[in-house]
Amino acid sequence: MKSSIENIYKLKVNQIIDYIKFNLHQPLQLNVIADIVNMSQRQLLCMMSSVLNEPLYPYVARQHVERSVLYMQTEDMSLQNLIGLVGYDNP
């Protein structure tokens, strides 16, 4: 039984990570993410902290920075364009 619960959590975590990756350019709302995986916001935050070994919000912030670094290394674009691609409102 424990194994099936772990598998469900892994699937949900993968769904959340994919959602974050594909929607990093726009504001991410906890209630929307929780609805996608059919969990309460609190359950989602606890699960993600447990699986990622860091809270959800720092994880998302790190994803923003990593995506920014990737774009800076591979693309020739203005800072203004870069900011829009990674979901920041201003430089």
From TrEMBL:
Coiled-coil regions listed: none
HTH araC/xylS-type domain: residues covered: 14-91
Single GO molecular function: sequence-specific DNA binding
Superkingdom as given in the UniProt entry: Bacteria
Name this polypeptide is given: HTH araC/xylS-type domain-containing protein
Species this chain originates from: Bacteroides stercoris
